[in-house]
Amino acid sequence: MASQPAWMNSLFTYTGSSSFSEFLGVHAPNLLPARNESLAAPVGDEIPHATTIVAATCAGGVVMAGDRRATSGNIISQRDIEKVFRTDDYSCMGIAGTASTGLELARLYRVELEHYEKTEGRSLSTEGKAHRLATMIRGNLPMAMQGLVVVPLFAAYDPSHDTGRIFSYDVGGGPYEQKEFHSIGSGSIFARGSLKKLYRENSSPQDTVLACLHALYDAADDDSATGGPDVMRKIWPVVAVITADGFRRLPDDEVAEFVESMLERRMTAPEGPTAPLR
Amino acid sequence: MSIPFGGYASPEQIMRDRAEYARKGIARGRSVVVMQYADGILFVAPNPSKALHKISEIYDRIGFAAVGRYNEFESLRLAGIRYADINGYTFNRSDVTGRGLANLYAQHLGMIFTESIKSFEVEIVVAEVGDAPEDDQIYRITFDGSVFDEQGMAVIGGQADAVGGRLKERYSEGLPLPQALDAALAALTEPGGERPPVTQIEVAVLDRGREHRKFLRLTGPRLEKLLEAAKEGQEGAQQPAEQAPVEQAQSEQDQAGQAPGATPPIAPEGDIDTGSGE
């Protein structure tokens, strides 16, 4: 019995909170992504980074979309990475920054939400989910100082308000609630500029998806680390729509249709749709 | 192990007393039925409380049902959730199995039964839904840590034998959900008695057709609709009762052939899994 992990002894006796990561922190800290270790040399530039994520609210929900590129320095390290994750039935998160830490964070966060839901018999409130994520990012601060920065974007459908909500973070945590739309990652400046012109309040989820895809295209246009839609390889952005019906990741052929209609328009107007001036 | 002051009690006597004590506690409550139906596994428990559940989700494919003392099986439930979440997070979500969980419970219950003054007054079912009905698993674990790999259905607590007998008469493989629910409720109702109202029963399914998490609690209008469908089926199903004698004979035969699983152990006879591993 000596070889069994220490947490096995605590399964039946733990009387702490309903937080999964807190349980890990006490009984299996080696499993947590955030470790307070110093690196011999900064590796921030050499390991893969995830790039642009956009999110925008729509009528009765919220849309999140992310490009598929990961880069290490000037190298494209992956063309079809997925950076938008379902975290529970009514929420999702996208990650930008160090890809490996981000993936681990997303995996842990999903378990965190589920763990609470199963032990307490109810879901966390939307604010509760957003706060929980902030604490987990703050835990990564020592690693962020070493160059392993990960910053997520969190989007959720809030059943108590019947609206979509968006929360952003920085390396110290957060959350900062965003109205209407937001973007993160290296191409976020361009994506946000694009969304500023294309976003329409209370438009349908379909129109909002299209606006998000245009924003990602604009980001890829001006940011070398953001990937545009790969027509040859049929690699499309990941698009998630969350409404009262729950989380739904659009299937590839559905995204392909949106992308094709967007590309067709860009054939004649390479800069994309223009917003009315007056 | 405490020896009563001024006298000697043989280990057999101590174990028998302890088992008798636990069995009485378990038989005091109402029964819980767990059975396969066409699309997965159905859990039915008479339970007047909306908040204190006897049925719960453990992981993506795994459900939990318990009878006996609430505080005891609640601690087992929480431990199961921690065990499943920590394994799923360490390895992969598909690496969490009902068998592993059943073994964990068996070890723990076995250890408590032999080493504590008072054994747990609980009996639990761990059920895992597979991709096909053949892959479904239902494990019944008793207070002394014995594990029974049940085929198709399991009844725990209360008058488990009588309820199990009634369920066997109505059970067949691949019943649609309303019929399965009807069979379970008929089994839980004493002959000539009245069925519990909607507000007094707790119903959940592990539906293999669902995405992500298979567990679904059936409440409110959804359950009422299902019960109505079950009632219609019940009225239409009066005729096949003529065939029943043959099936009944068959089921009695099955019961006889399954002697060790059909009755909960009164006293430890033969091998006992102490679970202590030493």
Automatic annotation (TrEMBL), chain B:
Sequence ranges of Low complexity compositional bias: 235-253
UniProt keyword list: Cytoplasm, Proteasome
Q: Which GO terms describe its cellular component?
A: proteasome complex
Q: Where in the cell is it found?
A: Cytoplasm
- Activity regulation text: The formation of the proteasomal ATPase ARC-20S proteasome complex, likely via the docking of the C-termini of ARC into the intersubunit pockets in the alpha-rings, may trigger opening of the gate for substrate entry. Interconversion between the open-gate and close-gate conformations leads to a dynamic regulation of the 20S proteasome proteolysis activity.
Q: Where is this region: Disordered?
A: 230-278
InterPro entries cross-referenced by the UniProt entry: Ntn_hydrolases_N, Proteasome_alpha-type, Proteasome_asu_bac, Proteasome_sua/b
Family matches, as SUPFAM superfamilies = N-terminal nucleophile aminohydrolases (Ntn hydrolases)
Pathway annotation from the record: Protein degradation; proteasomal Pup-dependent pathway
According to the lineage, what is the superkingdom? Bacteria
Q: How does it assemble?
A: The 20S proteasome core is composed of 14 alpha and 14 beta subunits that assemble into four stacked heptameric rings, resulting in a barrel-shaped structure. The two inner rings, each composed of seven catalytic beta subunits, are sandwiched by two outer rings, each composed of seven alpha subunits. The catalytic chamber with the active sites is on the inside of the barrel. Has a gated structure, the ends of the cylinder being occluded by the N-termini of the alpha-subunits. Is capped by the proteasome-associated ATPase, ARC.
* Protein role: Component of the proteasome core, a large protease complex with broad specificity involved in protein degradation.
User: What family classification does the UniProt entry report for this protein?
Assistant: Belongs to the peptidase T1A family.
Q: What is this protein called?
A: Proteasome subunit alpha
Q: Which organism is it from?
A: Microbispora siamensis
